[in-house]
Amino acid sequence: MASPNTYGELGLSIIGLGAQYPPYLLKPSEVNKLATKYYPDSPAMQKVLDINKYTGIDTRSSIGTSDHPLVNKEDAPSIAELHKTFISDGVPLAIEASKKAIAEAGIDISEITHIVSTTCTDSANPGFDHFVAKGLGISNKVEKALLHGVGCAGGLTILRTAANLALGHSMRRKPARILCVALEVSTTMVRSELNSINELQETRIGPCLFSDCASALILTNGIGRPTFEPIYELLGWEHQILPDTEGDLGFDVDPVGWKVVLTPRVPKLTTDVLKPSFHDLLESVPDLPAGYREAPDFDWAIHPGGLTILTGAERVMGILPEHMRASYDTYMNHGNSSSATIFSVMNRLRSKDMDAVAPEGRARDYVVGCAFGPGIAVEMCLLKRNMGRLGLHTPPETDSEASISEAGEDIDWASIDPKESIPGTPGSDIRDERKLSLSDAMFISEAIANAELD
Questions:
Q1: Cis bond leading into 126, ω under 30°?
Q2: Torsion of CA 162, 163, 167, 172, to 10 degrees
Q3: Which residues contact residue 115 at a Cβ distance below 8 angstroms, ignoring those fewer than 6 apart?
Q4: Which of 197, 316, 377, 402 lies in disulfide reach of 397, CB 3.0 to 4.6 Å?
């Protein structure tokens, strides 16, 4: 057990983590099946289906298959229908992820003081967090906050918000045990995106890339009853909005579901801000050991928005795929589940098999977390990992975790399967591989990167 005030200067630590993926796995052919069943052939549709062949996605985690009744009506499902499925199929995932985090934290439900949640794939009043709290049996007096408008940055945004709430409780000398929950159900919006492709002749690859997931963590301020040792200490964070970029990345509401807004500028905008954000983060945490000064000195938990985000980070920051091994692993096995992805990456990073492929065979004590969202918002945090906490919920992969998928938010991001084309990528020697020649890899990458975003 840890005594209070042992978690660093802020006294903030993550003591429980959990991720829950749904049971179904979507192959690329699932998108083709719906496209050919409900839409006429057209240049834009053919372009998207051609790109779908080269995303590198083997399967995406989903609450259903292409045979699900919701996506097999004559018309695309309405927001009301999407909401009903979000509650019936998504909320149980969030409850299960929360139970995992609470169990690992070793706390009682009655000790939870706040719930901070996020989603970008549903909107209702009360929000989904109300039903998660009800499903967990949490008291009606627990303070709740549900954040919207933060998209893929949502996971780190609710962590930052929870940290500030916890510090407020620390100033009042009160204990804080905060449940952070992210839930996304994206795959049900496939018909909405296919509608736009057909009607507007736009190149939209969201239906080929996004997946479903719930994830959760418990953040504590270290005051009150001693808890288990931390998984990660939260040492600091940075947040900023890139000026005049609100039109580059978004998720706009529509009568038949939300629609992704992406421009080709996004990969460059996000990678260019990495180095200055990292330097600002280090300046805010001045007492790091001497061996932690440059980007390769740290492990990296980056939201895997797409391949060019990860490879761009390698290029700009001078790090290896192995530094981001959990991001690549999540990216290949589950895809982009928007806000819920980053906690899943953090959970995966502390597993033994991830440690086995760390750079130079050495997992780092300090981890940089990073995610990007609409705005464009940049979220970055610094974590200190407790090597003694490998996790209660990192068993061998389940059926829903044993797939290889690649996910992204932009045609620039949707390149080729990294384990086929990037030497040394974590996982490249673990599963059966379909080898691409270097010339094939370069051709596919260039072709997708040059595809127009209408």
A1: yes
A2: 20
A3: 129, 132, 133, 138, 142, 143, 144, 145, 178, 179, 180, 181
A4: 402
Long-range contacts of 354-359 (CB under 8 A, 24+ apart): 354/325, 354/326, 354/329, 354/426, 357/322, 357/325, 357/426, 357/427, 358/299, 358/322, 358/325, 359/296, 359/320, 359/322, 359/323
- Tell me if residue 152 is catalytic: yes
- CA separation, residue 242 to residues 195, 249, 273 (Å): 31, 11, 9
Residue 414: its H or E element: none
- Structure token pair of residue 152: 């893929």
Query: How many Å apart are CA 54 and CA 412, to the nearest integer?
Result: 12
Catalytic position from the list 120, 152, 180, 213: 152
pLDDT digits (tens, 9 = 90+) for 48-96: 999 888 877 688 899 999 999 999 999 999 999 999 999 999 999 999 9
Q: Using CA atoms of 99, 397, 303, 283 in order, give the dihedral in degrees to the nearest 10.
A: 80
